[in-house]
C-alpha cells in the first residue's frame, strides 16, 4: 500500500521550520527540562481532609472557627493490649512511655490513665488530682485504684478499655502555625512516636499508633514511594512495549525522553504555583507517563511508513508531521477537555488536578512535536525491516481479521452492542458513593491495623465536634444552657453504636456535684442555678488547672464544646449519623435561639460526610460538561451534526460498560474514581478523530465506503494499537498501588482504554459505513486539507 504524504502547504511549512531550527529547539527544551527537574520532588503535599471539602462549606467554616476558639484538635492515640493494666510494671512502663512522648516537639501534652485528673470530694470542697498520683505498692491499693478507674465512665474508651486490658495514651498537638503547619511536621512527630514505641522497653507491648497526624504522614510517605515505584515500573513497561512497536532503540529513547521532559516542566509549574499535591493529584506523574507517549507513537508510526516507501529522512519527517499534527492536536484538545471538565467540581483538589492534568496534556502535545522530529532527525532513517514491522506481523493479521468481521457480521455486532448497553445500565445503577481514608490502605498496612485495633478495643479515631455559642460572656454558666447541653450529651451517648467518649463541660459539672455530695449517684446531675455553676467552676480552678476546663469552654465561658469520637463507619452510615445529630442538636437548642444561642456540628467526620455527598453531583456535572464540549468538538471536526454525534457512539459504549462493571464489582465512587468517566471520554475519542480524518481522505480518493473503511482500519488501526496498548498497560500498572482508589482508577482506566480501542476498531467503521457521510460540508479538519 503506497503512503501519501500530506500536501497542505501550511503544515509542510511548519514541519520544515521545526526541522530547520532543530538544534535551537533541542537546546531550549533541554535547558527548560533540566532546570525544571530540580523542583520535581520539592512540591509540598497535603493529604488532609480539609483539602477535600468545599471551599465555602459552612461546616468547614465552623471547623476553622472551632480551632480558633479551642485550638488544635489533632492528637496521636497510642495504644496496646496487656494482660492487666493495673500491674505495677505495666503502669511504670506506661508512665515512662507517656513522659517520653510528651517530650516530642510540638506535642502539647500526653495523657494516660497514670496521670489523667479526677475529682473527689473533701468536706465542703473538692480535690482535683491524678487518677494514680503514685503507683500503688500493695494489692489492696491497686484494687482500690482499679475500682476508682472503672467508676470513671468518661475515661473508659479514652484511656483504657472496660476490661482493663488495653491502654490508650492521647498525645495532643500544639496549634501548628506557619511553616510548622505542614505534613512534614506531622511526619516527624509520627516517626518519633514510632521510634519511641520500638525501643526495647516498649517493644514487647506491640504498640499501635493512629490519629490524624499519623494518617497524613502515612498518606504523604506512601504517595512519595508510589510515585517512584510507578515511574520505574511504567518506564520499564514502556521501554519493552515501545521497542516491540518501533523495533529501534532510537524510537524508544525519543519517546521516553519527550515524556520525561514534559513531566519535569509540568511539575516545576506545579511547584511554583504553590499548590500542594493531594490525594487526587498523586496520580498526576503516572498519568503523564502513560498518556505522554500518544503523539510520539503516531508521529513515529507515520514516519516509519513514509521512510519505508523510499522517502529520505527529511521528507519522511515532513510528511509524518503533516499527517499527524492536526489529528494529534484535536486528540490532545479533547483529552484535555475530558480532564478539564473536572474544573466544575466542588472539591478543590479535583479542580487543581484537572487544571494541571489538562495543561500537562497540551504541554505533552507541544513538546512531542518540538522534540520528537528534532531527535529523530539525528538518528538513522528507519530501514525496510522497521517499515515491515509496521506493515506486517500480528497487528496486520489482527486488523485484517477485524475487516472480515465487520463485513460479515455487522448486524450481529450491533445487536450485541445493544445488549451490552442494557447490561451496563443495570450495573451503573448499583454504583455506591463511598469515601473512607482508612480503606485507602491495604488491610495489612501498619496504619490500618492500628486503626482497627484501637477502634475495636477503645474508642474511634474520627471526631465530631459540636460548638455552642451563647453570644455572651459567661453564657456556659446559665442553667438553661447547661440543661440543654446535658440533654444533648445524653442523646449522643444513646448513639452508642456510632459514637463513643462523649465529653463536655456538663461532665465536669456532674463530677464536681457528685463529689461534693459524697459520691451519691443521686447528685450525678448538672447544677440548677448560675450561682452553683460558677461555684463549681471556681472550686475546680482552685484545686486543679483551669486549662482542663478550657478544653470544653472558652476562657470567657461564651463558647462550649461537646467532643465525640466516632467508630469506623461506611460513608453512607456516617452521612446518616451526621444528619441525625444535626437535626437533634438544633431541635434541642431551638428554645434558646431567640436569645441568640447558636449551635454548629463540625469536625473531620462531618467534613468527610459533606465531601461524600458532593461527589455524585460533581461527577454528573463533570461528565455532562465533558460530553457537551467533546460533542461540539466532534461536530466541528466532522463538519455536520449527524456525523459528529454518530462518531460519539463508539466512545460512549466503553465508558458505559466500564461504569457498569464498576457497579457489579462493588467498586465505590470516591474522589479518585469519580474522574474516570469524564477523563475516559476525553481519551476515548482520540482514536476516533484519527479514524475520521483518515476515512475522509480515503473516501474522497475512492468514493467507495467499504474500501475507505478497510484502508483506514489498516493504516490507523496500527497506530490505534500502538497507542492503546501502552496506555492501557500503563494504567494497569496503577493496580500495584497500595491505595485502593488508585488501584481502582488504574484498573477502570486500563479497561476503558482497551475497550475504546476495540470499539474504535469495530464499531466506528460500522457507524461510518452505515451513516455514509457525503462530506459536502467542511469541518475544521478541512481547513488543513
Descriptive account of the structure:
By secondary structure, the chain is an alpha+beta fold. Helix content is 62%, strand content 8%. The protein contains 26 helices and ten strands. Strands 2-5-1-6 form a four-stranded antiparallel beta sheet. Strand 3 (117-122) and strand 4 (125-130) form a beta hairpin. Helix 7 (212-246) packs parallel to helix 9 and helix 17 runs antiparallel to helix 20. It is elongated, with a radius of gyration of 33 Å. The two termini are 21 Å apart. 49% of the residues are buried.
Low-confidence parts lasting 5 or more residues at pLDDT below 50? Answer: 1-6
Question: What count of helical segments does DSSP give?
Answer: 26
Strand order of the largest sheet: 2-5-1-6
Provide the gyration radius in Å.
Answer: 33 Å
How would a crystallographer describe the biggest sheet? 4 strands, antiparallel
Shape: elongated
Give the % helix: 55-70%
Total strands: the figure is 10
- Structural class computed from helices and strand pairing: alpha+beta
Strand content: 5-15%
Distance between the termini: 21 Å
How confident overall, as mean pLDDT? 83
In short:
By secondary structure, this protein is of the alpha+beta class. It contains 26 helices and 10 strands. It has a 4-stranded antiparallel beta sheet.
Amino acid at each position: 500500500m503506497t503512503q501519501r504524504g500530506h500536501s497542505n502547504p501550511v503544515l509542510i511549512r511548519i514541519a520544515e521550520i521545526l526541522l530547520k531550527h532543530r538544534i535551537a529547539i533541542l537546546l531550549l527544551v533541554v535547558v527548560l527540562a533540566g532546570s525544571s527537574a530540580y523542583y520535581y520532588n520539592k512540591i509540598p503535599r497535603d493529604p488532609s481532609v480539609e483539602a477535600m471539602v468545599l471551599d465555602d462549606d459552612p461546616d468547614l467554616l465552623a471547623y476553622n472557627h472551632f480551632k480558633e476558639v479551642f485550638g488544635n484538635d489533632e492528637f496521636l492515640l497510642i495504644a496496646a493490649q496487656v494482660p492487666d493494666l493495673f500491674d505495677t510494671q505495666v503502669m511504670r512502663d506506661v508512665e515512662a512511655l507517656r513522659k517520653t512522648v510528651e517530650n516530642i516537639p510540638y506535642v502539647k501534652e500526653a495523657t494516660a490513665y497514670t496521670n489523667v485528673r479526677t475529682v473527689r470530694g473533701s468536706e465542703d470542697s473538692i480535690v482535683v488530682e491524678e487518677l494514680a498520683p503514685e503507683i500503688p505498692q500493695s494489692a489492696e491499693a491497686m484494687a482500690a485504684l482499679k475500682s476508682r478507674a472503672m467508676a470513671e465512665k468518661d475515661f473508659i474508651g479514652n484511656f483504657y478499655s472496660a476490661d482493663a486490658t488495653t491502654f490508650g495514651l492521647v498525645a495532643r498537638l500544639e496549634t501548628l502555625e506557619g511553616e510548622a503547619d505542614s505534613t512534614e511536621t506531622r511526619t516527624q512527630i509520627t516517626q518519633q512516636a514510632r521510634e519511641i514505641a520500638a525501643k526495647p522497653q516498649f517493644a514487647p507491648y506491640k504498640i499501635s499508633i493512629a490519629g490524624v497526624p499519623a494518617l497524613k504522614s502515612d498518606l504523604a510517605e506512601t504517595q512519595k514511594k508510589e510515585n517512584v515505584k510507578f515511574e520505574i515500573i511504567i518506564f520499564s513497561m514502556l521501554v519493552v512495549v515501545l521497542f516491540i512497536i518501533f523495533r529501534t532503540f532510537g524510537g524508544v529513547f525519543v519517546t521516553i525522553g519527550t515524556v520525561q521532559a514534559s513531566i519535569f516542566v509540568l511539575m516545576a509549574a506545579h511547584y511554583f504555583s504553590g499548590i500542594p499535591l493531594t490525594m487526587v493529584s498523586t496520580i498526576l506523574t503516572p498519568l503523564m507517563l502513560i498518556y505522554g507517549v500518544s503523539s510520539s507513537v503516531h508521529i513515529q508510526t507515520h514516519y516509519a511508513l513514509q521512510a519505508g516507501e523510499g522517502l529520505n529522512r527529511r521528507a519522511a519527517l515532513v510528511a509524518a508531521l503533516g499527517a499527524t499534527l492536526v489529528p494529534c492536536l484535536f486528540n490532545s484538545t479533547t483529552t484535555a477537555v475530558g480532564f478539564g471538565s473536572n474544573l466544575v467540581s466542588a472539591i478543590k483538589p479535583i479542580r487543581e488536578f484537572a487544571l494541571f492534568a489538562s495543561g500537562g496534556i497540551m504541554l505533552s502535545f507541544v513538546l512531542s512535536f518540538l522534540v520528537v522530529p528534532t531527535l529523530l532527525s539525528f538518528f538513522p532513517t528507519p530501514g525496510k525491516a522497521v517499515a515491515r514491522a509496521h506493515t506486517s506481523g500480528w497487528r496486520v493479521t489482527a486488523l485484517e481479521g477485524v475487516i472480515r468481521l465487520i463485513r460479515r457480521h455487522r448486524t450481529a455486532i450491533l445487536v450485541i452492542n445493544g445488549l451490552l448497553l442494557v447490561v451496563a445500565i443495570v450495573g451503573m445503577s448499583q454504583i455506591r458513593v463511598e469515601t473512607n481514608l482508612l480503606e485507602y490502605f491495604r488491610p495489612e498496612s501498619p496504619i490500618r491495623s492500628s486503626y482497627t485495633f484501637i477502634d475495636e478495643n477503645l474508642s474511634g479515631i474520627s471526631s465530631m465536634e459540636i460548638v455552642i455559642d451563647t453570644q455572651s460572656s459567661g453564657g456556659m454558666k446559665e442553667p438553661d444552657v447547661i440543661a440543654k447541653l446535658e440533654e444533648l450529651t445524653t442523646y449522643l451517648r444513646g448513639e452508642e453504636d456510632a459514637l463513643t467518649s462523649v465529653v463536655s463541660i456538663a461532665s465536669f459539672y456532674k463530677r464536681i456535684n457528685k463529689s461534693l455530695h459524697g459520691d451519691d449517684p443521686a447528685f450525678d446531675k448538672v447544677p440548677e442555678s448560675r450561682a452553683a455553676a460558677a461555684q463549681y467552676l471556681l472550686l475546680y480552678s482552685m484545686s486543679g488547672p483551669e486549662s482542663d476546663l478550657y478544653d470544653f469552654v472558652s476562657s470567657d465561658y461564651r463558647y462550649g464544646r461537646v467532643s465525640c469520637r466516632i467508630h469506623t463507619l461506611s460513608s453512607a452510615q456516617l452521612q446518616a449519623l451526621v444528619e441525625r445529630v444535626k437535626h437533634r442538636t438544633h431541635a434541642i437548642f431551638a428554645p434558646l435561639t431567640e436569645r441568640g444561642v447558636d449551635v454548629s456540628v463540625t469536625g473531620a467526620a462531618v467534613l468527610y460526610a459533606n465531601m461524600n455527598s458532593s461527589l455524585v453531583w460533581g461527577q454528573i456535572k463533570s461528565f455532562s460538561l465533558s460530553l457537551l464540549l467533546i460533542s461540539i468538538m466532534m461536530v466541528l471536526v466532522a463538519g455536520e451534526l449527524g456525523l459528529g454525534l454518530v462518531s460519539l457512539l463508539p466512545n460512549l459504549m466503553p465508558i458505559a460498560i466500564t461504569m457498569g462493571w464498576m457497579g457489579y464489582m462493588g467498586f465505590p465512587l470516591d474522589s479518585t474514581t469519580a474522574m474516570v468517566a469524564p477523563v475516559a471520554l476525553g481519551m476515548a475519542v482520540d482514536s476516533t478523530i484519527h479514524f475520521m480524518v483518515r476515512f475522509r481522505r480515503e473516501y474522497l480518493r475512492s468514493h467507495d465506503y467499504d474500501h475507505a473503511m478497510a484502508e483506514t482500519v489498516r493504516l490507523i488501526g496500527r497506530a490505534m494499537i500502538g497507542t492503546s496498548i501502552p496506555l492501557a498497560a500503563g494504567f494497569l500498572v496503577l493496580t500495584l498501588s497500595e491505595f485502593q482508589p488508585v488501584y481502582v482508577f488504574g484498573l477502570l482506566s486500563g479497561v476503558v482504554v482497551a475497550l475504546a480501542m476495540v470499539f474504535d476498531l469495530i464499531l466506528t467503521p460500522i457507524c461510518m459505513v452505515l451513516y455514509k457521510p457525503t462530506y459536502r460540508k467542511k469541518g475544521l479538519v478541512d481547513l488543513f486539507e
